[in-house]
């Protein structure tokens, strides 16, 4: 049964089927071809995985990102960062990387980040004369930093599946996220200098700079507040998610002044649809995990590793290679 699950899943993934659907098709194929699988228990396992209070944090964090990203935040971030580093080698590309990192502290979603920042940065890069392929690749790579920057949706999912602390994961992700950001910016500087990419030569305007700074400040403060609230136990992750949504609503209505009923409705619908996709992936993954456990595949893998792999670094290498391979087919939120 385990072999059938893996084969069906791989074929579905290679065929570009959405990951949740690929997992469900694999689970259905295994359940349909085995008379030992109790279908009612399988459904119960799927539903049980989404009956968790911490999962409420996901739609609220996504709604926070939708509220703030739909306003003037992106333009303000680009304006501030361009004035600071746009004149250096690869400066516009570095602006994209740093904007994506800061945006990650608002949205928590790599896909939302790539969409929002890309719509702002790619036209600007093209006007400056940057190759479209380089711009797209840089922004797509920079969006993955959001997986580490709180409030990270993938970190919440990992914490729920491994019984880890969401607060500890958020705090632990900050330094690796900043290191990735610094490494990407250094690469942009090196490539920009080597290929002589154009820089942003717009004259510095203090009035425009400080106006953009005022618009961008609330978004920069948000991830810091999230870490403080979680680190010192002021609020639970779910409560922090709700508070961040209220914060985003107040900022959009009072500071940005662009939160109308239509944009609020669009933000709620977008957050709801995105959350539905995440929950469907969780339910499908629960079905696959339960079927593999029912077939005793994890025990078989653990026994094989104990018998044949004796170096700890080799186990870690195998896990990373597996995640790298699966990452070619599986999209994170």
Keywords summarizing the entry:
78% helix, single chain, 333 residues, 2 domains, mainly alpha, 15 helices, globular
Radius of gyration: 22 Å
Number of contiguous helices = 15
Work out the count of structural domains: 2
Distance between the termini: 29 Å
Which stretches are poorly predicted, pLDDT < 50 over at least 5 residues?
none
Strand count, sense and barrel status of the largest sheet are: none
Q: What is the mean pLDDT?
A: 82
Summarize the amount of helix as a percent range. Answer: over 70%
Strand share of the residues? under 5%
Overall outline: globular
What structural class should be given to the helix and strand makeup?
Answer: mainly alpha
Report the strand count: 0
| SSE pattern | HHHHHHHHHHHHHHH
Description:
The protein has helices at 2-14, 19-32, 39-49, 57-69, 73-85, 91-107, 110-128, 132-143, 153-162, 166-195, 206-231, 237-256, 261-294, 297-308, 312-326. The protein has 333 residues and is an all-alpha fold. It folds into 2 domains: 2-52 and 288-326, no CATH class; 56-259, no CATH class. α4 (57-69) packs antiparallel against α13 (261-294), α5 (73-85) crosses α11 and α7 runs antiparallel to α8. The model has no long low-confidence stretch (mean pLDDT 82).
């Amino acid at each position: 049964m385990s072999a059938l699950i893996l084969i069906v899943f791989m074929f579905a993934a290679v065929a570009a089927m959405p990951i949740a659907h690929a997992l469900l098709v694999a689970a259905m194929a295994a359940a349909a071809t085995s008379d030992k699988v109790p279908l009612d228990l399988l459904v119960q396992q799927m539903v049980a995985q989404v009956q968790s209070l911490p999962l409420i944090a996901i739609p609220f964090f996504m709604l926070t990102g939708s509220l703030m990203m739909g306003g003037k935040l992106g333009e303000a971030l680009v304006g501030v960062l361009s004035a600071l580093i746009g004149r250096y080698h690869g400066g516009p590309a570095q602006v994209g990387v740093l904007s994506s990192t800061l945006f990650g502290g608002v949205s928590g979603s790599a896909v939302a980040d790539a969409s929002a920042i890309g719509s702002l940065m790619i036209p600007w890069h093209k006007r400056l004369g940057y190759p479209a392929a380089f711009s797209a690749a840089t922004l797509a790579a920079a969006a993955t930093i959001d997986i580490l920057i709180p409030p990270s949706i993938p970190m919440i999912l990992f914490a729920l599946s491994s019984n880890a602390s969401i607060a500890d994961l958020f705090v632990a992700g900050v330094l690796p996220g900043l290191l990735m950001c610094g490494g990407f910016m250094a690469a942009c500087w090196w490539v920009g200098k080597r290929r002589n990419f154009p820089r942003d030569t717009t004259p510095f305007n203090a009035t425009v700079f400080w106006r953009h700074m005022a618009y961008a400040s609330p978004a920069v403060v948000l991830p810091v507040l999230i870490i403080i609230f979680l680190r010192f136990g002021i609020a639970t992750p779910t409560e922090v998610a709700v508070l961040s949504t209220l914060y985003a609503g107040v900022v959009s209505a009072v500071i940005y002044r662009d939160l109308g009923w239509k944009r609020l409705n669009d933000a709620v619908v977008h957050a709801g649809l995105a959350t539905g996709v995440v929950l469907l992936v969780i339910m499908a993954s629960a079905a696959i995990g339960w079927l593999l456990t029912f077939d005793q595949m994890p025990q078989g893998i653990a026994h094989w590793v104990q018998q044949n792999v004796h170096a700890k670094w080799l186990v870690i290498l195998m896990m990373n290679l597996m995640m790298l391979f699966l990452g070619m087919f599986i999209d994170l939120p």
